[in-house]
Amino acid sequence: MTKYNTFTLDNGLRVIHLPSDSQVVYCGIAVKAGTRHELPGEEGLAHFCEHLSFKGTQKMSAVQIINAIEGLGGELNAFTNKEDTVFYCAIQAKHAKKAIGVLCDIVFDSTYPQAEVEKEREVVCDEIDSYEDTPAELIYDEFENILFEGHPLGHNILGTSEQVRSYTSDDAHRFTSRYYRPENCVFFLSGDIDKKTIATTLNKSIKGKGEQAVQPAGHTATPLKEKTDERLLVRHRGTHQAHVMLGTRAFAGSDPRRWALYLLNNILGGPGLNSRLNIALRERNGLVYSVDSSMVSYSDTGMWSVYFGCDPADVKRCLRLVRRELDKLMQKPLSTTQLAAAKRQLQGQLAIASDSREQFALDFAKNFLHTGKERDLTDIMRHIDGLTSDDLQKVAKQLFAEDRITTLIYK
């Protein structure tokens, strides 16, 4: 079992530390503040605040923030999702205290100067324009908005250019004062730094924070509605290639059925070239360059989907082939040999993925942020080992039935 150190500072900041003998440290701060925490009129603000956090603090200018880490050969970055924003750093262990200080500064002491807000608006608007010119990415957001219509989970993470251009320094202060607080965050670190040094450096870097209770997340007042009754939606975007996405709502992160879907998803459209959808659409019929399926679990719901791009004339044929593979999993349980092979492949992929220390650190940080539990690869392997063919078939029947599937087509 993976051996973590976990503790909570007096100001409420939770800490998870994975010791290792590596001389590279991966560390960061995960904030429970994402798209779903935006109130009406705040769409895109979580992502915008992520950008603005690098634009000046009480101690450092934007250029000083960049040089503080990059000047030491390290890397400083951040990303925003539907349920969290994560600031993270990779740096030599001997500079870890410096990295901790910079991370705490940008998360808890950013000033969001209006001059920088005005410049960064255009940067984010360019990002939005670039995204809208990429239908293979844009379709994911529209599809999620269809499945979670009327709920913040369906909102585009970036927001709209019109909305972003309306934001001010005051908006950033208002949003971050709700969520960028020690009580609502997790500090994580993987590397050769002792627990005492981490605690001492964090306490020194976060002064006077955490005195007020964090406000409840905005999504608590927004219940999920029934899924849309629309099953086929076509958007005429004038693209050379047709882009197709199909899927349905799935399971929350606490739902035990997610393990069966995890294995089913890998069988259908995982990263392996031997996935059933890749074999059916590409290898046997030469209809697509790539096809994949994906799943995501949120705190109270989830989503499963398939995406492929193809010639517009081949859309119907590709959809029939996808439907055939889904029907197979619904109608016939996997044989003992097939189940064992599927488990072996997924567990091998997980073992290799866990060797990426940065990604593993991000994974255990987000898991600890949302569940309070330590991420243990051995436990994940145990859940996969315990799956039966009957488990997989039950989930396939529940999720893959034709009347549950929504399809979105760009052409």
Kindly describe this structure.
The protein is an alpha+beta fold and 411 residues long. The chain has two domains: 5-209, Metalloenzyme, LuxS/M16 peptidase-like (Cytochrome Bc1 Complex, Chain A, domain 1); 232-410, Cytochrome Bc1 Complex, Chain A, domain 1 (2-Layer Sandwich). Helix content is 43%, strand content 18%. It is built from 15 helices and eleven strands. It has helices spanning 45-52, 62-70, 96-108, 114-132, 135-147, 161-164, 169-179, 195-205, 258-269, 276-283, 315-331, 336-353, 357-371, 377-385, 389-399, and strands at 5-8, 14-19, 24-31, 75-80, 85-92, 185-191, 232-235, 242-250, 288-297, 302-310, 406-410. Helix 1 (45-52) crosses helix 7, helix 3 (96-108) packs parallel to helix 8 (195-205) and helix 12 (336-353) runs antiparallel to helix 14. It starts with a strand and ends with a strand. Residues 210-221 have low confidence and may be disordered.
